[in-house]
## 1
Amino acid sequence: MGGNKLQILTAMIIYMAVVVGIGLYYAKRASASSDNFLIGGRGLGPWVTAMAAEASDMSGWLLMGLPGVAYFYGLSDAIWTAIGLLVGTYLNWLFVAKRLRGYSYIAGDAITIPDFFSNRFKEEKKVLLTISSLFILVFFTVYASSCFVTVGKLFATLFGANYHLMMVLGALFVISYTFVGGFLAESASDFMQGIVMFIALVVVLGAGTAAAGGLATVIANARQIPGFLEFFGIAQPIMEGGVQQLGESSQPLFGPAGHYGLLTVISTLSWGLGYFGMPQVLLKFMAIKKTQELTLSRRIATVWCAISLTAAVGIGIIGRVVYPTAFLTQSGAESIFILLSTNLFIPLMAGFVMAGILAATISSSDSYLLIAASAVSKNLYQGIMKKDASDRTVLKVTRIMLLVIAAFAMVIALDENSVIFTIVSFAWAGFGATFGPIMLFSLFWKRVTRAGAIAGMVTGGSMVFIWKLVIKPFGGVFGIYELLPAFLLSCLAIVLVSLFTEKPGPEIIAEFEQARAMNHKR
């Protein structure tokens, strides 16, 4: 290994050592109870809540997936996705956070999302608990695999190492400290990682702009590519065998600009709907110490999100201007952040910037693994199979499931040609359509029934698969992002089934009114 790569590796090792230290610091408190391990005893402060929510939400796709889309197809697809996510972030913090924090405590002191739904509807037969736990297990396994792909690509690109070996080593690192430190370690490290991600994005954006000759030069060069810098057009790389072709002057070839119509814009904006169903974000709302501190958290999260998303899109566009032929496949384009960092900074600095990708990946994968494991241990094992299981046993099962779920995620991540953005978009749609509608109706409509909740959850989750695999290939109007139709059909199923089934009982109504009154007071 050369001196430059050794310096990069040294900086990243220092960063990882800090993360491990955080896990060890919280190990004793995490092992005190399953409540501490899974939700931190509802003791998070506003800054940690905000930064941990956004860091665990954005994952490695923010530094690799989103810049990769901008690099390959230009502004429109990336920027409309970013706008949708920013609006969704703000509305989720504004409407859902406070109500969920209070309601989850009132509804049996729920510490997981399946717990909340089950307690909210006072179900004796744990159907909602089972369905929601299984969907969490499936989609978070897919989500975790996208993080492992990110780690594999990062180290394979940096050091020319074997992708599969790097992917497995990265996964083992994430598993090790999540296994020890639980939710507290995850949240505390996510706070630090949110800061690292933010700094990395801003620094690379600034350095890239300077290397390209300034903002005016970037805009002028990007506009030479048909559709590349348009809000309602999209660049069309000329492809052959999945590889963009080069012209006689060794420049990448593009066809005429594609049309990016209103339906496509709405479809892309619908990414924002996913926030209402993201367990890793919703859980942070439930874990804050004081409900009134959520206002400050909302402001922090929104500003962080706005700047980070803008920087990520800008990095992809600048990367195409500075290194137009560096990546000729969509999968390869997701390494543009790495290329800019290693070429524009001294090795030691590049290593710390690369830690931003590690930060994004770790902060997400630990959340995904922990929530998926808790869905099995707390909800399925203790909630259904062995209700008298001790707290110590639940902790043990949680840690076992961490290993099992991670193993399945690693199997999915074995394909080194996976496109991170594509994997994330599917899992995002799954959570958004499965949990988003019923979360909103549960918090804001007292007439919703348990049958309506089940119908909405099953409709939303299953329709993501049906639309993606069966309907979307027809193209045209059916080519929209699967989250939008699945979300709308889930809402429809909730309303219709609730109206045609018996009204909720007085105990459920009383809790709903109590939660509403608590929200108004604060």
Note: The chain is about 75% helix and 5% strand.
## 2
Amino acid sequence: MPALAVGVETSPEPVDDTTLVEIFSRLRAADPEPRSELEYRNPYTLLVAVVLSAQATDKSVNLATAPLFAIADTPQKMLDLGEERVRHFIRTIGLFNTKAKNVIALSRILLERHGGAVPCEAEALEVLPGVGTKTASVVLNVAFGVSRIAVDTHIFRVSNRIPLFSAPTTDKVQAGLEARVPEPFRLNAHHWLILHGRYTCKARRPDCRSCAIADLCRYPSKTTALTPLSDGD
């Protein structure tokens, strides 16, 4: 299913290639070995965790999957558990009814078509229930070391704000970033950008004063020009 258009904040033209390299050099220097904040045990549990993370926080997913993965960390164990019990484990996550159905359905397909293994091809992943371009890209990147840049709301915002690449949909931003980001940074770019968007370049009020790339960013509404943040901000 094609990505939906999301509101894009008005920004200047994307930064030039030299600035792009400097941005990722600084992000790498601050966090040389970034990791996904989703907790998983193997490619299968990563796949399930990413499916569950749609419209949910990583923290809420981790709280639900810790006891779930303790007893069901393979497609066969998940099927043996059954949809009702899966639903019980993930009931605190948004859309848990649909997600429980998808987890059981994708587990069955993995067993029937892939011998219980998670495929390492985007085409095979994207036909699984609950899996789209973003989920497939995360699994390929994290589990198999493929240089894909999955774009969620955080990365979409950051890319359009700086801007690294401006486009009205997540799919177009992903294609643009994968074409622009130099190979030495491409493998970890997803992690650097999502963490930057989650903790610094936040949606409501970006923390520009503590941003390592504030002087390179062209976002016209930087908070550095605003009054000091209160303790509650």
Note: Residues 17-34+148-223 form a domain with the Endonuclease Iii, domain 2 fold (CATH 1.10.1670.10).
## 3
Amino acid sequence: MSKLQPELPLRIDENAEVIGNKFLRYSVSLVTQGDHRFYTLTVPSDILAKTCFVTTRDEDPKVGFQRVLDRQRAQQIADYIDAGFGTIPSSIVLSAQPEAEMRDVGKGKTVEFRANKKAFLVIDGQHRVYGFSLAKTRLRVPVVIYNGLSKRDESRLFIDINTKQKPVPNELLLDIKKLAEYETDAEQLCGEIFDKFSIDPASPLFGLTSGTSRSKGKISRVTFYTALKPLLPVFKDSGSEQAYKVLADYVRAFRAGCEQHKAMSAITNPVVLRAIMQLFPEVGLRVKNAGKTYSTDQFVEALSPIFKKRPTELIRPPRSPRILFENLSKSLRQTFTL
């Protein structure tokens, strides 16, 4: 009969100290906010992966992660960490459980806890912790730990964090991506065209765009990108300057048709914008097959069947850009004669 092998100590960070059997000790700062006190510290990512869980169900912590969270999103975080591209400085928020046996052993400057797989319930940062568990790279992670919370307190804290933190608008993120040089080729082309529509005084959308936020009566960067992306294959051999010139003439022609029926605000409706951009290849092909140049006058002529009568669908568009596109396309086809 073989002898039982002694249990190996858990690998820990050089700045943590093992106290007894699998107890870890870390330097902390004690913070008081309102009625709550919590500790701030940094913990190695592999320790977090081994001591955190995301559900209070009686199940394996790793299984709990996999059931509750999006593995693809967590894998993206892991890949980002392993590639060494950058940093994730925001804190993971945890609630110490009875299994942690967490206690202050240094007058608010040092805490110790047992490295139990159910030591900490993750209140915020679930995907980051899951991503750390999938990553090969080990790094230190900022952590906030509450101790002694009731289940009600944990639930309320989760609700507060996930409802009172306002996310950065997607419009602003797209704008910042350019500064960070994180843009894809498609985003770069869309961005250059959007900027030309925004800053050119002769643009048919001048004064009607909003680059960093959503604003009523204006076209946001996200709305414009969404409308333009299906057209990118059309402009694969063109630069942003040429693409802008042709699209500006097209939009100018569309606005001229709307002006006839006092529907000038139609262009800033996201459904309308997406529908008319989807219609552009069909209208452009008509101009090209007629042997004419892409100009405002030629686009006005090509679009004229849509504006022969009051275009009520442009004034009160359906919810689906696809439905509006199909109806506009049908209007063009019905006027075809030999």
Note: The two ends are 97 Å apart (CA to CA).
## 4
Amino acid sequence: MTSDLLRKITYVLFISTSMCLWAQDEELVVDFIPDNTYEEVADRIQCIEGEIPLNFNQRVMAFVDYFSVRNREYTRDIIKRKELFFPIFSEALARHGLPDELKYLSIVESGLRPNAISRANAVGLWQFISSTGKMYGLRNGWYVDERMDPYEATDAACRHLKDLYRMFDSWELALAAYNCGPGNVRKAIRRSGYKRKFWEVYRYLPRETRSYVPQFVAITYLFNHLDLHNFQEEPEEFSPRWDTIMVSQYFHLETFSNQVQVDACLDDLLKLNPQIKRGALPEGTRDFALRIPEDIKAEVVANRKFLYDTASKVGKKELQYLARNTPGSTYGRKKLTYRVRSGDVLGTIARKYHVRVSDLRAWNGIRGSMIRIGQRLNIWVLPTYSEQTKKLYTVDLPEAVKNEDKVVVKDGQQIYKVRSGDSLWSISKENNTTIEKLKTANKLASNTIQPGQSLVIPVK
């Protein structure tokens, strides 16, 4: 027998017995995948069914096979994180009087990743799009996105699921509506001849939603029977015990972490506060409850003034610049609504309002360049923009301008270098003067100023 033939026979035997081999800590480890039959899985699902129906069929079995056999590594990864989030989910579900098995829905939605972002820009553990998140009180901005906050987002998801159940009086249809929206579920109900069960309207639902509820059933089953599918206990991730401090200022997390005298890890701060997207809280923050490891609370309280002052001085200028100039950012801007007219294209609308085409696409969920007459577009303009001034804002500042101080002393006068996003109003407030004094000192006939322009700051 040749060595090649022997290798082929060995490989066939390996596959037929559903054995997986991998190297771990320089030892060969065997991961045996049990052969769970359709009848066995059906019987187990029937035994764990609670308030939410867990209808079993070949579609569900296919997902059980997918998560337990074909993509075991994905399931192992989720198992490691479940103790980070399941206690949060169970507490909120109990508080809202909802079935505990709804905690498995977040696995289908995000794979238990609080910073997950879908192609449709749904965000967080519970995958809220911006409009639905705001409907349930989840604010999202350039610095902070509460859809990534496990506590806030879970509470919002509970309220949303409760509303959907009231609409349809069916948990399966409520789950379908969570995925595709209540309008699509109502349409499926009408097209089915006003049937009221998920599997009766199944063929009329969007393709993704047809897989969504079967995945939920499969995940619910699997996480109740991990041992029967030979999922070994994995080293689990745990959230550190935490307390809160109140922050009402610009606050740079890494600087704060580096200054605390006891062991404070930036990774722990970010894990406890995943809603902080840029590593800092913006200027103007009010009463933000920042979660910190419990063991550093006493040190922070004892050195509060020093720590807060230090955390307020790093990175502010750079982050503000990025916030103003990132495509789709609404930071420091005011919202207008524009109705598309005959002959309009994105380029002409962008030029008219001094924004970028990429901004218009991001603000309105436009993938290409197609717009239609009568369509309403959200446009976020900088606050000094008006039909009279039409101030031109540059996107990129020269490196020298970005890095120099705002106010310098020249010939005994304080000189302010105008930056993108500045207005006479913001400059007057920052330098404790008035718009009229600024205009007089600089012989300005209007409120128009340009990035890079030097302004004399009046003597107080």
Note: The first helix runs from residue 3 to 16.
